[in-house]
Write a structure and sequence with these properties.
- Helices cover 46% and strands 13% of the residues.
- It has a domain at 83-265: Glutaredoxin (3-Layer(aba) Sandwich).
- The protein has helices at 2-31, 115-133, 153-164, 169-178, 180-186, 189-194, 199-211, 215-227, 254-265, and strands at 83-85, 88-91, 96-97, 104-110, 138-144, 235-240, 245-249.
- The chain starts with a helix and ends with a helix.
- The longest helix is centred in the first third of the chain and has 30 residues, at 2-31.
- By secondary structure, it is α+β, with helices and mostly antiparallel strands.
- The strands form 2 sheets. A 5-stranded mixed beta sheet has the order 3-5-4-6-7, sandwiched between helices. It has a two-stranded antiparallel sheet with strand order 1-2.
- Helix 2 (115-133) crosses helix 9 (254-265) and helix 3 (153-164) packs across helix 7 (199-211).
Length: 268
């Protein structure tokens, strides 16, 4: 009986010893990680086949730009050559009237929007045309001198000059002066001129105005006036064959001018 107790006691001690010897190993096994050790992550690089090169990508098709074709425009006709009469130069023959052999040359610097110029034209100049120009006594030159204070005088000068170069100077000048109060309110010089011409004539005049063909002649008249010098309109200059020059400033009645013209004509 005692022997059995001793064996049982020895077996129990042995079990305890074995448990003590095995426990550290079991403890270590419990500390062993169950997950695989993570490797450092490396950024993924595309394979050569997957790499997209922008530089080697075909460029987008560019739109075809047609070549610019320049069409040469016909040059406007050069202004008609000016002439000289009795020592007076740079005369546009389309704006001059009478015989070049007349004993007196009369220049009138005028502005179509000037009331005094209208008065001179309607009451004096037309009578001079009838009694002196058409009878070979006076060679009359119309000079354009549009004043900067008048908004439409230069346009009126352009239409008058164009009409003169198709042989319709007197008709258009008369229409412009007689309707001065109307067109100076709205600038409708074109309509005023058109009323005095046929449609075919107006088409020619408009083409000349649009092309500015005779603008240099208007500028020449202005330049000559500045040399006189013209300081107001109307401004007339009378020339005799003897070389005498007489300025007539502003409006002058026909009766006063007639007396003076008779004296100059008689000097021939």
């Amino acid at each position: 009986m005692n022997r059995r107790r001793i064996l049982v006691a020895l077996w129990g001690v042995g079990v305890i010893v074995v448990a003590i010897l095995l426990f550290p190993s079991l403890h270590k096994l419990s500390e062993t990680p169950t997950q695989q050790t993570e490797q450092p992550r490396v950024p993924l690089q595309p394979s050569p086949a997957e790499t997209v090169s922008i530089a080697t990508a075909p460029p987008a098709a560019r739109p075809l730009i047609p070549p610019v074709i320049t069409v040469a425009k016909a040059a406007p006709a050069p202004p008609q050559a000016t002439i000289s009469v009795n020592g007076v130069n740079d005369i546009d023959p389309a704006k001059a009237f009478g015989s070049k052999n007349a004993p007196v040359v009369m220049e009138i610097f005028s502005d179509f929007q000037c009331p005094a110029c209208k008065q001179l034209y309607t009451t004096t100049t037309q009578k001079v045309m009838d009694n002196y120009v058409n009878t070979g006594k006076v060679y009359l030159i119309h000079r354009d001198f549009p004043l900067p204070m008048h908004a439409y005088s230069r346009v009126a000068a352009s239409y008058s000059r164009a009409a003169a170069h198709i042989g319709r100077c007197e008709e258009v000048e008369q229409a412009i002066f007689q309707n001065q109060e109307k067109w100076e309110m709205n600038g409708d010089i074109q309509g005023t001129v058109a009323a005095a011409l046929s449609p075919a004539e107006m088409k020619k005049v408009q083409a000349i105005v649009d092309a500015k063909t005779f603008e240099p002649l208007i500028e020449k008249d202005k330049h000559l006036g500045q040399l006189v010098p013209v300081n107001q309109t109307p401004y007339s200059v009378l020339h005799t064959k003897s070389g005498q020059t007489f300025p007539v400033v502003g409006f002058v009645s026909y009766d006063v001018l007639k007396t003076f013209l008779d004296q100059l004509v008689s000097q021939k």
